[in-house]
């Protein structure tokens, strides 16, 4: 039979071969080197950018809400820029420092317009600065649309009253126009035939051209309902 007992050194070599310890260490080392290069590249890219914010992972929406609670009003764009560009340890870049100085100077002059609009006029279409990731001008316009206060709206009863009056005026004018057309047609027939048309026939023609509601009222007017006294009482058995 084969001797199954192995020396400790041979056993460790077999374990290393199975687990791939040396290979894993090499992969980890290469990964760390790659991450270092990526970090250095990102750092160089950030240094080339202008007006980098210093809020880290804190969202602009949270900062804006916090400032609104402290100020009692929504913060201006200039106030948001200054708040999100504060540097606690290392100083900011020269351009950022100059822009913050210009904004603070305009704020101290009590300008009616936002200091940010006076300083930064080179905004590009698309996303809006100082609003966080993904905020566009269209989103802001929809959000800032004024919602009418119910107290400023016209009561429904007033709207209905005005609508009824307008409808009555239009109906009246329309009926007058129809009557004029009928009379004009009657005059034309009189001139053509040489005979006078009975005014009662003209009235009946006008009545036929009326709307059903007005036609019914006209018929009731032409044939008034007899009173109860004109009927003979019927004897009940």
Automatic annotation (TrEMBL):
Which residues does the annotated region (Disordered) include? Answer: 205-237
Which InterPro entries does the entry link to? Probable_transposase_24 (IPR004252)
- One Pfam family assigned to this protein is Transposase_24
Question: What protein is this chain from?
Answer: Uncharacterized protein
List, as start-end ranges, the regions of compositional bias called Polar residues: 226-237
Q: Which domain of life is it from?
A: Eukaryota
């Amino acid at each position: 039979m084969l001797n199954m007992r192995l020396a400790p050194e041979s056993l460790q070599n077999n374990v290393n071969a199975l687990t791939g310890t040396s290979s894993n260490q090499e992969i980890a080392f290469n990964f760390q080197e790659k991450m270092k290069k990526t970090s250095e590249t990102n750092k160089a890219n950030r240094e080339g950018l202008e007006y980098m914010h210093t809020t880290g992972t804190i969202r602009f929406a949270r900062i804006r809400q916090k400032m609104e609670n402290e100020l009692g009003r929504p913060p201006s764009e200039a106030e948001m820029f200054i708040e999100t560009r504060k540097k606690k340890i290392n100083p900011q870049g020269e351009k950022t420092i100059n822009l913050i100085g210009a904004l603070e100077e305009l704020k101290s002059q009590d300008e009616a317009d936002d200091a940010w609009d006076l300083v930064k006029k080179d905004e590009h279409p698309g996303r809006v600065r100082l609003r966080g990731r993904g905020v566009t001008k269209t989103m802001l316009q929809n959000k800032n649309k004024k919602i009418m206060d119910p107290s400023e709206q016209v009561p429904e009863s007033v709207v209905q009253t005005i609508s009824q009056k307008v409808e009555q005026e239009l109906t009246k004018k329309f009926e007058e126009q129809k009557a004029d057309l009928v009379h004009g047609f009657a005059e034309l027939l009189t001139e053509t035939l040489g005979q006078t048309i009975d005014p009662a026939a003209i009235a009946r023609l006008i009545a036929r051209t009326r709307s059903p509601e007005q036609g019914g009222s006209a018929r009731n007017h032409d044939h008034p309902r007899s009173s109860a006294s004109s009927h003979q009482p019927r004897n009940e058995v």
